[in-house]
Amino acid sequence: MKYFPLIWKNLWRRKLRTFFTVLSVLVSFLLFGILSAVDTAFTSGVEVSGADRLLTIHKVSLIQPLPISYFGRIQAVSGIEKATYMSWFGGIYQDPKNFFGQMAVDQETFLDLYPEYILPPEQKAAWLANRSGVIIGRTLADRFGFKVGDKIPIQATIYRKVDGSDLWEFTVSGIYEGAEQATDTSSLYFRYDYLNEGMGGSLGIVGWYVLKIADPSKAAEVGKRVDALFANSQAETKTQTEKAFAQSFADQVGNVGAIVRWVLTAVFFIMLLVTGNTMAQAVRERTSELAVLKTLGFSRPVVLGLVLAESVAIAVLGGGLGLLFALGVIPVMAKALQAFLPVFFLPPRDLVLGVALVLLFGLASGLLPAVQAMRLRIVEALRRV
Which end of the chain is more exposed for a tag (fewer CB within 10 A), N or C? Predict the structure, then answer.
């Protein structure tokens, strides 16, 4: 700490140059934080997917329904502990722009398959007791200001009632929280029996089945057993892990993680050159001063440490502010983008990585100028004055 005043004074000797260098580093790490949140938004479904969950869909396409009569046969397959089924509703709430997921589910088994959805027992009981009841995620509730007991009218685009009406009214029975920050809490789940009743009691189809298996290492084997049951039928199935299913959706918009990494690599490389050049200029400008320091007894390691400390100070100042700004900006962006990206945050692991990159960036950009300063000979340096 005794050298801090010297480091700080040298750092701000060229105020304008230091300011713009710090600003450049700040923008780089602000970009790092935002892009990390974007990556999380597109891959959160993959990261939190249950390792012990399989999805069974129609072999042709997800949009093709499956007979509900498959349910009992799937439950009897060896290796499956629990199963449930879901159907996409696809209705409109007030305006088509108010998009959010709406699924009809089997209320008796749904929450058993999704323990990451935390619902108070009394709200679950209310849902089971009310045929038109729904449970909604905290993100969705905050987005529209929904509360328990509110009525939610939704205009159907796929399922019309047997009387010809396309308006379905639901009552909020509960609001579920996510067990993890990455858990998607932006959807609405209602009872399949309510949908079936509105359709005249003869719906007979579901969108897909979700299966909980006893041994995740045997996922492929269990999936083959399920698919073998319905081979050569009018509705053949395709069973895969939930993670693989989520990854296939993420891949439709490209490898976001790879894009983020390449962009950040390019940005950091450019900034490494900029900061390294700044430090090299600072060393050249202070050649005579460094010679004087060595004459006064400053050892080579101390001179090396002084220049490195300067570089690290620039990185910490700029990178630290950039990460702090990211922490402030991302929640604002998350609120604005919640209709499209319900999970948008900077994960703690990426924040820790950002801090590590700040230090690494400071050391890497200052290493070459610091070595040059350390190797500087007093006589040669004084000749340059």
Answer: N
